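Dear colleague,

As promised, here are the two records you asked about, laid out in our usual form so they can be pasted straight into your sheet.

NAME FIELD: protein one
SEQUENCE, THEN STRUCTURE:
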Amino acid sequence: MRVGKALAAGFVAFGAVVVSAGTASAAPAYDCLFDEVCLYYSSSSYGYGAYFAQSGSISDYSGYYFKAGDNGSTGAGVSVKNNAAAVDNRATPRNFYLYYNSNYDCRVACVTVSPGTLINLSEPLKNDNASGKLGPSQVG
């Protein structure tokens, strides 16, 4: 009888762990196509919101705007420059480099986003991004 109660308690505890693990933030719906990078207006905790897709390098995000997509419209119409909170690099097999300054200037800050990686930006790049560059293909 004690063994049965112990096993039952163990299954209940295991079930609680499995249920807790299922509440993690989900990846965004894919607004990006293969070989593009998406910048999102919001981070994962806010559902990503509007997006901006790029398939080449942009030395200054001035004049580019987020648009509504599969993850919602929060941020649609807002300038991409200094307003991105997350990056999804679907530009396989190329790294994506996001810069604090225009013209790919890394003196203040920059981040490398590996192919197939989705990140929430942190300070100082969160909502302070000015340019983004796709690196060369990593396929030899």
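NAME FIELD: protein two
SEQUENCE, THEN STRUCTURE:
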Amino acid sequence: MAEMIRAEGLEKRYGEVRALAGLDLAVPEGTVLGLLGPNGAGKTTAVRIIATLLKPDGGRAEVAGVDVVGDPDGVRRRIGLSGQYAAVDEHLTGFENLEMVGRLYGLGRAKARERARELLERFSLADAGDRPSKTYSGGMRRRLDLAGALVASPPVLILDEPTTGLDPRSRLEMWDVIRELVGAGSTLLLTTQYLEEADRLADDIVVIDHGRAIARGTADDLKAQVGGERIEAVLRERGDAERARAILAEVAMGGAEVQTDDTGRTLTAAVDDGVPALRRVLDAFEGSSIALLDVGLRRPTLDDVFLSLTGAVTDEKEAGR
């Protein structure tokens, strides 16, 4: 597949701060690349360079074969950009917002109006299309903003944290919209602070920290880097923790340490034989007097990957989400 976005050795400084330190990215046509990283990792700087809003201090980037520095207008004709905050004029109706974008793209009045109605229908906003957008909910504004990025039918979409601030239902609705776009052939660069979002939407993931890519691969590839499956046991009584720890230590992979959470009642052990190890643990707990609230086999999450690679919590956890 052709690469619709390609970045090689991107560098960017803000005074003494090195925001990007030789970042490489590649997004094949019709795929989603998830760009993850802690606060200050360089995600938004990379997006702004690829979207021609910033010039790199070093390296190069192309969108659909067009250089972002050499022909920024050509790049802008090929991309749709949705930033962290919905860029809509709250005094205009949803229809007027989209019509305005179409006119700015030079579609002409009739075509711009036709495209506006089409997108309002596609994003389930037709009933609200003639209302001022200031009356829209947060989820509706985000859908309107994304619709605006699609007015000119660009082959490449750049979404910078598109579901930030949305409630869970609105986030799920946005995920459905994004899946539909990719299913129709769009190529997507997605930055997100929600690891579940990258897990569900991205074909490949690049984790960046201090302006560099420190890991890349599918969600399953990255999870494999931090080990295989885990047995997690939740105790009814904290006082049983030491005996439970001894049971789990018998099946822990390579003598790995059994982890205990802050409550002292949830214990986790990495295992390399999955279901057989779980059976042995269940038999051992059944023969003891330890009361369990829950026990099961868990796969590593992208949170585990993030902690392992960066030593930091994710943005969403820092924000208390």
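A couple of things worth noting about protein two: Residues 313-321 have pLDDT under 50 and may be disordered. Residues 227-299 form a domain with the Alpha-Beta Plaits fold (CATH 3.30.70.920).

Best,
R.
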